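Lab notebook, bench 4. Still working through the backlog of constructs that have no structural model yet. Next entry is a single chain of 265 residues. Request: give me the structure tokens for it.
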Amino acid sequence: MKDRKSILLSSLIYLITNLVGLVGFFYPFFLPLLSADRAQAASPWLMTLLVGFCFVALLLEVQGDALNARFVALLGVLVALNAVLRFIETAIPGPGGFSPIFFLILTTGYVFGARFGFLMGALTLLVSALITGGVGPWLPYQMFTAGWVGATSAGLRVFRLEGRRGEVALLVALGAVWGLFYGMLMNLYFWPFAAGLGDQQWTAGLSWIAGFQRYAAFYVATSLAWDIVGALGNVLLLSFFAAPTLRALRRFRRRFTFIYQAEAL
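Model written out:
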């Protein structure tokens, strides 16, 4: 009964967290009179809520059982490793929107599940921002979006291709999609308040179709080329390194599960 309550509470925390993220991205379209300054003032609140929810989620995971505690420890190591990769990326900038951090976010979410993947994405962006000085009004949006990258990769497990031909191809395809979609989502945190864009600017009273057309024109003109490079980077990294990385992550998963089962005897 206790485990069921913990699972339900943990699931509720993740659900609320994701709803907060969706509201954070899309509320400007429902509050058209909100100024850009007041909208940016909401960023610290989003940040506080997201970090708080992540902290509560980690506490719930650790208090569950010894197996979850080991996975949380592994999460900390992987987040630190990914944060170092982003520091290297910042020190030695790659071309366009290429970033190596999404490789581990995608692969860990695929192996360990949606909750692990969400925390991996969100905490990677938080820790790496603190290291690189990339803290700003954009950070909570980056954390939510990176969390969704990790969570959605777990959805590929429905195809039941673990260890089989084709699973890397699925991850490559998802990496390509998120290489573009990450930028599309991130633009939304400031696009409703951008001025001087002519027919690429969002204004109150536009229909959803007209708004989509204007945003598409804005995205193609400002971000598409940048994000294509990011998508290609994801494709290359996953194509060459996903298979050995998945094998290594699964060894950790099997070892932790075996130790937990042995301790339970």
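Notes after review: The chain has ten helices and no strands. Residues 224-264 form the longest helix (41 residues). Flag for follow-up if needed.
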